Amino acid sequence: MRFGVLRFPGTCDEVDAQLACERVGEAVILWHGDTDLQGVDAVVVPGGFSYGDYLRVGAIARFAPIMESVIAFARDGGPVLGICNGFQVLCEAGLLPGALLPNRTLRFVCRQVNLVVVHADTVFTNACEEGERLSIPAKHTTGCWYAPPALHEQVEANGQVLLRYAPGENFNGSLADVAGVRNEAGNVFGLMPHPEHAVDPLTGSVDGLKIFQSVANHVGAAHV
Amino acid sequence: MSDTLVPHRALGLTDAEYELICDKLGREPNAVELSMFSLMWREHCAYKHSKKLLHQLPTEGPYLLMGPGENAGAVDVGDGLAIAFKVESHNHPSAVEPFQGAATGVGGILRDVFAVGARPIAVLDSLRFGELDSARSRYLLEHAVGGIGHYGNSIGVPTIGGELYFESPYEQNCLVNAMALGIAQHDRLTRSAATGPGNALILFGALTGRDGIGGASVLASAELGDADADKRPTVQIGDPFAEKKLMECSLELLDRELLVSLQDLGAAGLTSSSSEMASKGGLGLDIHVDRVPLREPGMEPFEIMVSESQERMLCVVEPARVDDVLAICAKWETTATVIGEVTDSGRLRVLSGGDVVGDMPVAALVDDCPLYDLAPEKPSAPIYPTPRRVLESDDPRDALLALLSSANLADRRPVFEQYDCLVQSRTVRRPDDADAAVLLLTTPSGGGAPTGADGTHPAIAVSIDGSGRRVACDPYRGTVEAVLECAANLACVGAEPLGLTNCLNFGNPEKPHIAWQLSESVRGMADACRALDVPVVGGNVSLYNEGPEGPIYPTPVVGMVGRLPDAARAGRLGFAVEGDAIAFAGPFTPSLPGSELAKLRGEPLPDGLPEADVGAVRRAQEVVREAVRHGEIRSVHDVAEGGLAVALAECCLGGGLGAQVDFRGAGAEGEPLLETLFGEGPGGFVLSGPRPALAALAREIQLTFVGEVVGDALTLTLDDGAALSWSLAELDAARARGIADALEDV
Amino acid sequence: MSQRIRVLVRPKAGILDPQGQAVERALPALGFEGVENVHVGRLIELDVADPSQVADMCEKLLANPLIEDYEIVEA
Questions:
Q1: Does B448 map to a domain?
Q2: DSSP structural state of residue B207
C-alpha cells in the first residue's frame, strides 16, 4: 500500500501526513512540478499555506502540473484524501462540492475538536463506526464549508457528508456542521481537521489513524 | 549648528565617533560610508553600552556546541543531534506597526536559526504591553498576536509557548521578544565566516526595496516620542511564504554541501551581514550594488546597502559550485544573484557600475566601534509610579478571584489558539498542559522518533520567562529569580537545562539609574547561570526603551532549552486522579511585597527582594526533575505569580478536578494569611500523586502533605478552622474573560 | 498595445461575509452611523493585450464562481 503526499511551495503538513501514512503503509512525497504519480495507490493533498494562500486558498495550487495527474487519477476512481488546505485545493479543482470561506470569527483557531462519523461504510471511514466520535485537532483560518442551497441539499441527500463537528464544537461556522465531505463517486474526500496530527499517543489522540487505516483497508480489499 | 544640519549627528553619531571614523579611513567618509558606519556603530548592531557587561556571562558548558557570536547558539541533545536557539527583540518596530513588527520579528529569528543549518522546529514569544484598560494596549495585543500567528503558522513552524504581561511602564514601549529553536545533525551546524578569496558572494531571497531604510537600528537607538507616525514608512513588511521557500532552499543548499558559509540579513541589511561575514573570516568583500535585484527603480548605492527588506540571505560559494546553487534557488522559486566576491584586502568595497562608491576597513566597521563604560548609580528615589489599586477587599476569597481575573493571570487560550502548536508532529506538551513545552526529538529528515534501547523517546523542553516588575524592585535578585523560574519550569516536565538565551530589555543606559539596573541584572544573570551550571549560548540586547513617561521596567527575558530522556514521562501540571495526595515541596518562602496581589492592592514597589537560597532551589529542582522522570508523580506545577493559592487553582483547572487543601500550620510563625496564600518567591512546587511516591521525596527536600485531589471545588482549610471554597466553575469563570474580552473589543 | 483592466471580485449576494460584517461593526465604534450592507472583496488590475480574454481569466482563476461575482472595468 503506497500513499503519495503532494508538496506545493508553501505546504506545511506534508511530512506529518507522510509519517501518518507510514504507520499503515508506505508513503512518498510528490513534487508539485512533476506529473508522475509514481504508481501510488492513494493520493493525499496535505495541509499548509500553498502559494501563501494568495488570491484564494488553494486557487493557485489547483493548477499545478501534479494536479492534472491527480484529477485524472480521481476520475479513474483512485482514492484522494484532502486535508485542510488539501480540501480547499480539491474544492477549487472541482473534485469536491462547495467551497471554504473565512472562519466566522476571522481568526486562525488551533483546537482539538470532536467529530461525529456520519457514514462508516466508505473508503475513508470503514475503520470507524457510525456515530463514533473522533477527537482530532483543527487548525485553520478559512474552514467554513459552504454550498449554495440546491447543492447542499443534494450533498446531504446523497449521504456525502461523512464527518460533522459534534454539537458545540463547530468554531468556523460551517454549514450544517460539515467537517468532511466526499464526492458523489465516493473516492475523493476532504476534511478541515487534521487526522495526521492524531496518530501518535505521545502527541495526543490516535483517532485520526482510522482515516488512513480505512484507505489502506480499501486498497487492500481491492487488491485481493 | 543644529544636529539636523550636521550629517553625522543627524545619523546619530557623536562628534568623537565621527573623528574616529575619519581617523580609521584616513579621510572623511562619503555618504555611502557614513550611512554604513552610522548603522554599524548604532547600539543595536554594536552593543556599545552592553558588550563589556556581557563578558561576565558564562558561555562554556559540557553540552555547548556553538556559543555567542554566531547567528544562533547550539547545544548537544544526544543521538548526534543539536538544538540551535536564540531570542531576539523587535520592540520598537512593534510599537509602530505591531502586526508587521511582530511578524518580521518572528521572521528574523527564524532566519538566524536556519542560517546555522538548523531546521526551525518551534517559536516562543514573550510579550509585554501596558494595562488592558488602554485602547492602545488592546490594539497592540491584538495585532502583535495576529502577526506572530500569521508568520509562524504560514511558514509551518509551531508556536509552542510564550508569556504575556501587562504593566503600565510598557504602555509607550511594548516588548516583543521572539525565540526560535532548530534541529540539526552536529556536523551540519554552519558558521558565517566568509573564507576563500575569489569565492563568490550570492544574495538570495526577496528583492531589495526601501523597507526599513534607517529602520530598526535607528528606531532601536532612539527613545520613542510623539512623532512615530513619521517612522511608519521605515517599517518592514514580512512575507512568510517567501521565507518558507527561502528556508527550504537554504536547508537544501546546506544538505548538498554547496555553501562555504551562510548569513541572514537582518538589522542594517547588506551592510551588517557582509561586514560580519568578512570580519569573522578576517578577509574582505567586494559588493557590486548594481547587481542587487531591486523591487524599486532608482535606488541609490547607500539605500541598497542599508535596506532592511526581509527574507534575504547571503552565502559564500566556491566558483565551481555557483551554477548548482543558482539551480537549487530556481527550483525553490527564489531569486539568486552573484553580487560580489571574497577578497584578501580586509576591506569592504562597494562598487556601482565599475566605480568604487565606498571603501572601508572591515575591522573599522565591525570591531572598532568604541565601547562605553556605564556609569551606574542606584536611584535614590523610586523611578516607577505605584500601581493603581484595583482590589479594595482584604478578603482572601475575593483576592483569589481578583488574581485569576487579572490580565497577568487570566486564561491565555484566546491568544495561543491563534497559533498552530502542532505542525511538524513533535508536540508532546501543548500550551497549558505543563509548565514547559515538550517536543519529540525526531531526526531532521522526519523519520520516526529515535527510540532508546528500552523503547524511550528522547525529547526536549523549552520555556521562556522574563520578569519586569520584580526586577524593578531588585535588579540583581529579580534577575536571579527569572533564571531560577525558567529552570523550574523545565524541571516540572522532567528536563535538565542545557543552555540559555537571553534578551535584555532596558531603558536608556546613558542614564545612571538605568545603567545600574542593567549592570545589576547582568551580574544576577551571570551568578544564577553559574550556580545552575547553565551556559549562555547567545542573546540580544534592546536598550532605549523609554518615552516621555519614563522607562520600562528593567526586563531580562530568559529562554532555556533542556532535555528529557522519555517523552512518555513528560510532566503535566493538572491534577489527574481523584484520591491523589497533594503536597507542597521545596525551599519556598512566600513574600508579598512586589507580588501580583501587592500590585492589585496598589502597593508601591519595595526597595529590594528577599535573597533566595539558590543552592537549595537548585537541589529542589533536581529532585523534582528526577521524580518526574521516575514516572510516579502525577502532576507538578511551579509556584509563580499569585503564589500557592493561584498555583492550586491552576492545577485544579488544568485537570478539571477539585482539591481539599489544609493550610493549617502551613504559614511561618506570625505570617499573615494573605502572605501564606499569595506570597511569591522561587523554589516552590505543587505536586500530586500516590502518597507513597510523594513521601519518597521527603527524604530529599522539604515536603508537606496538604490534602487530596477530590470533587469539583477548591477548598482551603485555614488556621481558625474556617474554610475558603471556590467551585471549579467559579474559578473558570473568573479566569475566562480577562484576555478574551480585550481581544474581542478591538 | 495593452489595455489596463480592473476586475472587482465580491462575495455573491447571500453568502456569509464575515469580513464585511466585521467592517460594518467597526464603523459605528469610530463614530460613523448609518452604514449598512458592507461587503469586502478584491481588486485585481492587469495590463492585457487581448481584453476579450479577461472574462475567461475570471471564470478560471481570478474568481470562484461558486461563491463570488466579478465585474470587469476598463480603467
A1: no
A2: P
* Residues of A identified as active-site: 84, 194, 196
- CATH number of the structural domain spanning residue C43: 3.30.1280.10
For residue B246, being part of any structural domain is answered with yes
What CATH number is attached to the domain comprising B3? 3.90.650.10
Whole-prediction pTM value? 0.94
Complex ipTM value: 0.97
B679 forms beta bridges with none
Residue given cell 532549552 in the structure block? B561
Give the separation between CA A175 and CA A153, rounded to whole angstroms: 11
DSSP calls for B598-651: HHHTTPPPPSS-PPP-HHHHHHHHHHHHHHHHHT---EEEE--TTHHHHHHHHH
Q: List all chains that touch chain B, counting a touch as 3 or more CB pairs closer than 8 Å.
A: A
Flag whether B11 is in a domain.
yes
Is A19 in the B-facing interface, judged by CB distances under 8 Å?
Answer: yes
Give the strand order in the sheet containing B536-542. Answer: B427-429, B437-440, B459-466, B555-564, B496-505, B536-542
Domain count, chain B: 1
Q: What's the gap in Å between the CA of B417 and the closest CA on chain A?
A: 5
Buried/exposed B446-470: b ≥16 CB within 10 Å, e otherwise: beebbeeeeebbbbbbbbbbbbbbb
Strands (E) in B467-511, as ranges, are 496-505
The answer to whether B432 and B654 have CB atoms below 8 angstroms apart is yes
Contact A146 C18 (CB under 8 A): no
| Among candidates A103, A104, A146 on the partner chain, residue whose Cβ is nearest the Cβ of C67 | A146
Q: Could you tell me the sign of the dihedral formed by the alpha carbons of A44, A49, A54, A56, in that order?
A: positive
Give B15-37 pLDDT, tens digit per residue. Answer: 999 999 999 999 999 989 999 99
Angle formed by the axes of helices B31-40 and B15-25, nearest 10°:
120
Structural domain spans, chain A: 2-223
> Rounded to an integer, what distance in angstroms lies between the CA atom of residue B80 and that of residue B184?
9
- Other beta carbons within 10 angstroms of residue B125's beta carbon come to 30
Under CATH, which number does the domain A2-223 receive? 3.40.50.880
Do the Cβ atoms of C53 and C12 come closer than 8 Å? no
Q: How far apart are CA B654 and CA B573, in angstroms?
A: 7
Q: In order along chain A (224 residues), what is the average pLDDT of each group of 10 residues?
A: 96 96 97 97 97 92 96 98 98 97 94 98 98 98 97 98 98 97 98 97 97 97 76
Chains in contact with chain C (at least 3 beta-carbon pairs closer than 8 A): A
Quote the domain boundaries for residue C57: 3-74
In a domain, B310, yes or no: yes
How many folded domains does chain C comprise?
Answer: 1
Domain that holds residue B318: 1-41+190-369
